[in-house]
């Protein structure tokens, strides 16, 4: 259920690991354009519209439906889905705090191009089309920041075409690597992948049956590069995961062998000081 938020604005709510907005999100691009977090365009956007709290799995809008409002994400992740040939939801991307969804329909007045749901409880601001367009036109920093955000999404979409090529274990490694590099947070055993996804959602990202994804998760766990539990994946070795992700030309079903590890001189905070020597 969507309810009015207790907070009047999104200021100070942020964000992702490290305290900043994720790269490529609109609020990050506004800070870049205005050389800091206190620019007039950013502050105006964070106060636009109405603050709301979305419950986990709350539907923001449905693919094909009319609607022109924009949603600014201030805390929590959103899932972007389309329907497969059988009409089942297919996860195609996620949106992080600092980003917006719904801006395409606000610009062209067309129906929604995808379904957006809350991956967890979220704080958002719902902004009308009129107020969104007035904000874009009224702030010199707005249009360049929006353009860079859309360009970032386009580049990400092109990179994601690799997620459906090669062995399923390599596809899954790429998908996990993509999310952990964008939104991972330090945990006791490595970098925790965010948002938490089901195996069905991972299967949508990599274009494979859920059974194959389950098997690939087990392979990655046995190789020592991740640990996985219910809706939770922790990356123990980013270099090892990247090596598996590069297995474009290998036969499906080729064994993923455990990585030998060595101590590193400068471990990242919150990440085990181990990297694989090589996966042979």
UniProtKB/TrEMBL annotation:
InterPro entries: cNMP-bd_dom, cNMP-bd_dom_sf, HTH_CRP, RmlC-like_jellyroll, WH-like_DNA-bd_sf, WH_DNA-bd_sf. GO terms for molecular function: DNA binding. Residues 58-134 form the Cyclic nucleotide-binding domain. This is Crp/Fnr family transcriptional regulator. It comes from the Bacteria. It comes from Streptomyces carminius. The keyword RNA-binding does not apply. Keywords: DNA-binding, Transcription, Transcription regulation.
């Amino acid at each position: 259920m969507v309810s009015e938020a207790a907070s009047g604005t999104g200021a100070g709510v942020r964000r992702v690991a490290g305290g900043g907005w994720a790269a490529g999100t609109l609020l990050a691009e506004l800070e870049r354009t205005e050389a800091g977090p206190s620019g007039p365009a950013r502050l105006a956007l964070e106060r636009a519209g109405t603050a709301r709290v979305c419950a986990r799995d709350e539907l923001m809008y449905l693919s094909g439906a009319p609607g022109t409002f924009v949603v600014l994400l201030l805390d929590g992740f959103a899932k972007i889905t389309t329907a497969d040939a059988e009409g089942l939801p297919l996860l195609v991307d996620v949106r992080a705090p600092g980003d917006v969804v719904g801006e395409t329909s606000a610009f062209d007045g067309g129906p929604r191009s995808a379904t957006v749901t809350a991956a967890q409880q979220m704080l958002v601001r719902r902004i009308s089309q009129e107020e969104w367009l007035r904000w874009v036109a009224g702030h010199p920093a707005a249009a360049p920041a929006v353009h860079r955000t859309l360009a970032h999404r386009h580049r990400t979409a092109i990179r994601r075409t690799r997620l459906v090529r090669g062995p399923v274990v390599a596809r899954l490694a790429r998908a996990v690597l993509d999310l952990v590099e964008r939104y991972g947070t330090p945990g006791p055993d490595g970098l925790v992948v965010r948002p938490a996804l089901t195996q069905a959602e991972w299967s949508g990202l990599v274009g494979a049956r859920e059974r194959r994804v389950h098997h690939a998760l087990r392979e990655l766990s046995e190789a020592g590069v991740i640990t996985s539990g219910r809706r939770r994946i922790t990356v123990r070795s980013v270099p090892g995961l990247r090596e598996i992700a590069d297995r474009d030309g290998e036969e499906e079903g080729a064994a993923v062998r455990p990585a030998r590890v060595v101590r590193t001189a400068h471990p990242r905070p919150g990440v085990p000081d181990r990297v694989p020597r090589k996966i042979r």
